[in-house]
Amino acid sequence: MKQITKRLLPGQDLRAEIEKIVKEQEIKAGVILSGVGSLTNLRLRMAGAKEVKEWSGEFEIVSITGTLSQADCHLHLSASNPEGTVIGGHLKQGCIIGTTCELVLMIFEEVEYKRAPDPSTGYDELEVCE
């Protein structure tokens, strides 16, 4: 195992930067350990929804989690607004860093994460290849 710690800068797209790290570092299997910071724009797909919802304003990253691979990054984000209301869902491109985002990734070098269609869910689901 190894870790990658990176600070993202104001104006960067959170999901795009995560995907860029995955490609550049050739990550075949990994997870997000931690992500703290702020966002000025939030774009999420909620559970069971097809459309993406968007919010603008000041948001604090409350949590970010997900699996990382060349096949796909399956990422969930929760963020709070200035009133403390938490919004969460599938992280989509367009979540823009406000002041900073301190991101810590853990990479598993002994396995590879892939995606394969699962007829029972209708989605490409995780396969762990050793």
From TrEMBL:
InterPro entries recorded: PPC_dom
Q: Where is the PPC domain?
A: 1-129
UniProt xrefs under Gene3D superfamilies: Hypothetical protein, similar to alpha- acetolactate decarboxylase, domain 2 (3.30.1330.80)
Protein name, per record = DUF296 domain-containing protein
Give the organism, scientific name: Candidatus Harrisonbacteria bacterium CG10_big_fil_rev_8_21_14_0_10_49_15
